[in-house]
Design goal:
The complex is a heterodimer of chains A (350) and B (304).
Chain A lengths: L1 H9 L6 H14 L3 H11 L5 H34 L22 H7 L2 H20 L2 H11 L4 H12 L6 H12 L4 H8 L14 H26 L3 H9 L4 H26 L6 H11 L1 H4 L2 H11 L3 H28 L9
Helix pairs in contact in A: 3-4, 5-17, 7-11, 8-11, 11-13, 13-17, 16-17
Chain B lengths: L1 H4 L17 H29 L3 H7 L12 H7 L3 H30 L8 H13 L4 H10 L7 H4 L6 H13 L2 H9 L4 H12 L1 H17 L2 H6 L8 H10 L17 H24 L2 H11 L1
Helix pairs in contact in B: 2-15, 4-15, 5-9, 5-12, 5-14, 9-12, 9-16, 10-11, 12-15, 12-16, 14-15
The chains are: A mainly alpha (350), B mainly alpha (304).
């Protein structure tokens, strides 16, 4: 045990043999504030082992630096996790969480029996699957196309343009689509001018899947290429050269050099996407719900929002949200497991 | 192969083994890339142009303007001379500036604090951050929390819940970890505290990545829409995105749109002007930060 900790402590030592000496000599002279910290922070660590105390004294500035972020996460990420207990209550905002009656799993059984919930699940999964097929490959293809350009300035220029829509808000993206494809938009304006019938794109529930996927592509497909370009630039040009010398044409090089080079990034992004299966364009849906109706646009997140915040059925919505969060967690862990089985590193290792 | 390499018109960047594409392949490439660029810039062009076109030009075009006609800034004068849009712009600017500053301070400090594996409590703190990337509590508890903290109808509700992005911290941390230990150690030998090392050595070396992260945060605050729908009930406090939604997507009339008197701006121009206002800050900052994307994001992605 002792040897284990010693070895761990000595691991960074080769790079900072002078760090110890410097902190010993520099602390009293250059850290006038350190006495206050020692009074408050040092008292707590007296009962710890000496090595921990030494490490705390050495690193306390680093710990204090990380503290504001930890506090913010504690309040705005971890407290709400506890707040999910309302899913097991019959919560009323007038009574508050402490005094609301506990109802066990009742909310969950109500959710499971609710056809509206399953409609939201179905819509969510259909959208995810559709975008996996029609959105996911586009950045890969675009990145390979850009990578094949030899003129660096042209390449940088096109990158700058295609990244841009990623930084627009969903309100803006939907507004732009409204102006181009809406009833009074550019498309219908020119159709009418040429005597054609106007088409109904923005409010048609039957084509909604295509509409939201096009919006997602317009907004984020360009930004998606950035990771693939990074992976492509990491491929050793000597591999291409060797392949070309061995007589491989451009398609063979793409298959045997480029795609293997992208493999781990593709797997990583697939895992992230699968783990996120239950999250699809929340703002995008809310913005267009009035236009196409709830049947086409209701996804899990909007279901939670409308049943909870809009209709005041807090506990019921929290139960649905909790199911979503837990299934998402299971999905990302499972996807990561599969990646490990295939020998990829995944989101996290080990 | 050797024949292509000796061609005099060959550009120097093209490696010797990389054959010139055929005419067909070249045409396909040019057409695809031109279509992509046009798909992004085309809509923006016509929206900006319509926002600065006069009523007569818009009527002649039948809606959106593709060919520049008479240019006027009347729409902008009208929406920026006080009223709902002006107030929303001020709200959005204020929230974005305050929020970005706060986010950057907290994130840079945290990323630097976590940039030395093996330091005290390094792993527990890192895990505290990372867990939130895998499990999020959901809308309902988040709303209940903000409401029980009394933040409903305050601008803090637009800032605090989205103040830190763990992803951004990980990118910053990845960059800080890549800084040569020797430089930091020599600073310490010279008696610099961690705070001084951060502000006077690490930050000046990390301008590119901090600029990119600041842009990410700033864009996040500027674009935030749902937070405002959820937490703000007072329409006087609405940020620009909510106002944009009501004018362009929900068909609410832009003030002044109804009484089209003399000199009043055309109503499509007013709508377009609100759209343009929502993208102007991004268009202003983007060119300066854009060139750092690959550097900043790449290093963070590789390390993270």
């Amino acid at each position: 045990m002792t040897t284990g900790t010693e070895r761990r402590d000595s691991a960074p030592a080769p790079t900072n043999p002078d760090a110890g000496t410097s902190s010993r000599s520099a602390t009293p002279a250059t850290r006038p504030a350190s006495k206050n910290h020692q009074a408050s922070g040092g008292g707590g660590s007296v009962r710890q082992r000496a090595s921990l105390k030494v490490r705390f004294n050495r690193d306390r500035s680093l710990v204090f630096m990380a503290l504001p972020a930890v506090i913010l996460l504690g309040v705005f990420a971890y407290l709400p996790m506890l707040g999910n207990m309302v899913a097991f209550q019959d919560y009323s905002p007038y009574v508050g969480i402490p005094d609301s009656p506990w109802v066990g799993m009742e909310n969950f059984s109500r959710v499971i029996a609710d056809p509206e919930f399953w409609l939201a699940v179905k819509n969510t999964l259909v959208i995810t699957a559709f975008q996996l097929v029609f959105f996911f490959p586009i950045p890969i293809a675009l990145a390979m196309l850009l990578n094949s350009l030899v003129n660096p300035r042209l390449r940088a220029g096109i990158q700058a343009v295609v990244y841009l829509p990623h930084f627009f808000s969903w309100v803006l993206v939907v507004s732009v689509f409204q102006q181009i494809f809406g009833g009074a938009g550019l498309l219908n304006q020119s159709l009418r001018a040429n005597g054609w019938q106007a088409v109904d794109v923005m409010t048609n529930p039957d084509t909604f899947l295509f509409l939201i996927t096009s919006q997602a592509i317009w907004k984020d497909a360009g930004w998606g290429i950035i990771v693939f370009l990074a992976a492509l630039s990491a491929i050793d040009p000597a591999q291409y050269e060797a392949a070309a010398v061995d007589g491989a044409g451009r398609w063979k090089r793409m298959w045997h050099v480029t795609l293997p080079g992208l493999r781990s990034v593709i797997v990583l992004l697939l895992i992230l996407r699968l783990g996120d299966s239950l999250t699809v364009g929340f703002e995008q849906m809310i913005l267009q719900r009035d236009a196409v109706g709830a049947d086409a646009s209701e996804v899990l997140d909007t279901f939670v929002y409308y049943t909870g915040v809009q209709n005041g059925d807090w506990s019921y919505a929290a139960a649905a949200g909790l199911i979503k969060g837990l299934v998402s967690l299971a999905l990302i862990l499972a996807a990561n497991k599969v990646a490990h089985i295939f020998g990829e590193s995944g989101v996290y290792s080990k | 192969m050797s024949a292509t390499t000796t061609k005099p018109r060959l550009r120097p960047e093209r490696p010797a083994w990389y054959e010139e594409p055929g005419r067909m392949a070249k045409t396909v490439k040019v057409v695809v890339l031109a279509a992509v660029v046009l798909a992004v810039l085309g809509p923006l062009y016509t929206i900006v142009l319509t926002s600065i076109s006069s009523q007569a030009t818009i009527t002649r075009a039948g809606g959106l303007v593709l060919i520049p006609g008479e240019i006027t800034l009347a729409a902008y004068q009208q929406i920026l001379s006080g009223g709902v849009v002006t107030r929303a712009v001020l709200v959005s600017v204020g929230v974005t500036a305050t929020g970005t500053l706060l986010s950057m301070v907290v994130s840079v400090l945290c990323a630097y604090g976590l940039s030395r594996p093996g330091s005290f409590a390094h792993t527990p703190i890192l895990f505290t951050l990372l867990i939130t990337m895998f499990f999020s509590a959901g809308i309902i508890p988040a709303y209940l929390l903000v409401s029980s903290l009394g933040l409903i109808n305050t601008y803090w509700a637009l800032i605090l819940p989205s103040c830190i992005s763990v992803f951004n911290i990980i990118i910053l941390r990845g960059f800080f970890m890549g800084i040569d230990r020797g430089i930091l150690d020599s600073a310490r030998i010279d008696g610099a505290s961690e705070w001084r090392t951060l502000t006077q050595i690490v930050l000046p070396m990390s301008k590119a990545v901090t600029a990119v992260i600041a842009l990410f945060y700033g864009v996040g605050y500027w674009n935030a829409f749902f937070n405002a729908v959820l937490y703000i009930n007072d329409s006087a406090m609405n940020p620009l995105q909510v106002v944009l939604r009501s004018y362009v997507l929900q068909g609410v009339s832009v003030p002044g749109q109804i009484d089209v008197g003399d000199g009043a701006a055309a109503s499509p121009a007013l709508q377009m002007a609100v759209i343009v206002l929502a993208m102007v800050p991004i268009l202003l900052v983007y060119p300066f930060v854009q060139k750092h994307f690959t550097k900043g994001v790449m290093i963070g992605a590789v390390k993270g």
